[in-house]
């Protein structure tokens, strides 16, 4: 161990790096024992206040650079977008992504470019939105109908998230495979949901940090990594057997030849042309399952929580829908443009409750410069996007949920990264391509719910609990609250 440390120290010294400031590291552990496991957006703000808008933490052998200003975010994501356009993985993500055979966690280069190009036509165009929006509208309407059938929903309340989760799976599985699940009890849906949840839990946990930060301890992680491998294999097999191969079989039948293509049909074409292999296809499905479904669901769940806890804002959304569309006229995707207050509510939820508050970690493959500092190759770069969007130096009373800010002083700020203080989807080369789908899905869902119900906390409670759940890089609500949905009498 002493040799390893001596080598690293001499390597860094030898290069005469001018490293960013940070707490003084101790041998072997670096800063890990001082800073602990939970490097969430809030803890990192405290470090930024102490050490500045760029700082370095040594987590065992790994360098972690935290960026906390709009100017430096611009440098990482835009100006030096190529230099900082790679991703770090860790021992667990290596397993779940087949060492970067996917798109989200692969380094910046040929493979990433190809995957992003191949995924664009099937997933990330306005044509896809237009092809699928009726499906999203129908899924939101189905949520409303199902809730109305549960008498308890109007009295003691229900955990609405469970039904919304089914809706989000249906929204994305319609795009991917032209498939949907009938009910929350559908055995295939239950299997899929359980495996995805296990994948999320295993990768978001802090349990494996020690083996990731300090390689000599890795043998102790063997049991954990074995569980990860097992989950990964069962999950990919499920995608293959029940969805990918099934779609291939269906698409080859005569009756389907003239049908509108779903995403998997486009992806199979790329596979047939030899542009990607069978494993890449599997990892595309893997990526959509994690990047698309949960993130959008968390955002909807947060927005609903804020609407429940701010009845006056909820009323304003409802009044806007009634005035612009007319009472009882269900919201559709093209209506969203005419509903500025609903859009402002969504933006405000994405600001205060940013689903990926530190973005997906970036990485520089080679030694680089940032600000006036040297950044050693393969450092993990966290952009604290949550702080950029919640720093009182840049925002008026950021702690308040006040959608009107996006109609008043911040009316020019969009979710697409046109302002480096507000990056819920990142910006630049590695920014979220799914924004084109996520925004309309969120608006359609919230719109349908508010049009049909008064959303309230359960009896005896004045607000629902909005405690945050810790995770490696996600911001989820800790408790999936019970919500009362009182049907409106129109
Ligand atoms: C509210 C919902 C969503 C949020 C908040 C969100 C947020 C993000 C963020 C912050 C990143 C990383 C940006 C960076 O590192 O600079 C990202 C990447 C990504 N997102 Fe999303 N996302 C959402 C929905 C979706 C959807 C619906 C899809 C797909 C249908 C999707 C697919 C992806 C992919 C493939 C990447 C990786 C891009 C790359 O590495 O090149 N996301 N997302």
UniProtKB/TrEMBL annotation:
Domain of life: Eukaryota
Record InterPro entries: Cyt_P450 (IPR001128), Cyt_P450_CS (IPR017972), Cyt_P450_E_grp-I (IPR002401), Cyt_P450_sf (IPR036396)
Keyword Metal-binding: yes
Gene Ontology biological-process annotations: lignin metabolic process
Compartment list: Membrane
Entry's EC annotation: 1.14.14.91
Stated family: Belongs to the cytochrome P450 family.
Protein's name in the database: trans-cinnamate 4-monooxygenase
Native species: Buddleja alternifolia
């Amino acid at each position: 161990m002493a040799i390893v440390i001596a080598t690293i120290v001499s390597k860094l010294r030898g290069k005469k790096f001018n490293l960013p400031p940070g707490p003084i590291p101790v041998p072997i552990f670096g800063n890990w024992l001082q800073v602990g496991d939970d490097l969430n957006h809030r803890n990192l703000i405290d470090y930024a206040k102490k050490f500045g808008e760029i700082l370095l933490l040594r987590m065992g052998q790994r360098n972690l650079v935290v960026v906390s200003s709009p100017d430096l975010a611009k440098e990482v994501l835009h100006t030096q977008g190529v230099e900082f356009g790679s991703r770090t993985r860790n021992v667990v993500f290596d397993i779940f992504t087949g060492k970067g055979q996917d798109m989200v966690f692969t380094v910046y280069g040929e493979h990433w470019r190809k995957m992003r190009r191949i995924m664009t036509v099937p997933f990330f165009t306005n044509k896809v939105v237009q092809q699928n929006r009726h499906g999203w509208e129908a899924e939101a309407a189905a949520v409303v109908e199902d809730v109305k059938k549960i008498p308890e929903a109007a009295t003691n309340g229900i955990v609405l998230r469970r039904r919304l989760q089914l809706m989000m799976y249906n929204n994305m599985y319609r795009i991917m495979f032209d498939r949907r699940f009938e009910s929350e009890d559908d055995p295939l849906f239950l299997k899929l949901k359980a495996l995805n949840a296990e994948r999320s839990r295993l990768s978001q946990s802090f349990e494996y940090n020690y083996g990731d930060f300090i390689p000599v301890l890795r043998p102790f992680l063997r049991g954990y990594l074995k569980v990860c491998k097992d989950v990964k294999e069962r999950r990919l097999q499920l995608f293959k057997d029940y969805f990918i191969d099934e779609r291939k079989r269906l698409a080859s039948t005569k009756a389907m030849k003239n049908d509108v293509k779903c995403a998997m049909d486009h992806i199979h074409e790329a596979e047939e042309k030899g542009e990607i292999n069978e494993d890449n296809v599997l990892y595309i499905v893997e990526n959509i399952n994690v990047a698309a479904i949960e993130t959008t669901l968390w955002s909807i769940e947060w927005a609903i929580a804020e609407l429940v806890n701010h009845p006056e804002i909820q009323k304003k959304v409802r009044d806007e829908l009634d005035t612009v569309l007319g009472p009882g006229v269900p919201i559709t995707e093209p209506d969203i443009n005419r509903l500025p207050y609903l859009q402002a509510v969504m933006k405000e939820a994405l600001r205060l409750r940013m689903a990926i508050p530190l973005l997906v970690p970036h990485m520089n493959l080679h030694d680089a410069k940032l600000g006036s500092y040297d950044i050693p190759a393969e450092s993990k770069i966290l952009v604290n996007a949550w702080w950029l969007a919640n720093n009182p130096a840049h925002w008026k009373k950021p702690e308040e949920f006040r959608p009107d800010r996006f109609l008043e002083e911040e009316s020019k700020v969009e979710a697409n990264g046109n302002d480096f203080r507000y990056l819920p989807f990142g910006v630049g080369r590695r920014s979220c391509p799914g924004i084109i789908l996520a925004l309309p899905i969120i608006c359609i869902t919230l719109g349908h719910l508010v049009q049909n119900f008064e959303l309230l906390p359960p009896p005896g409670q004045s607000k629902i609990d909005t405690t945050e759940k810790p995770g490696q890089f996600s911001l989820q609500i800790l408790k999936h609250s019970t919500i009362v949905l009182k049907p409106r009498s129109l």
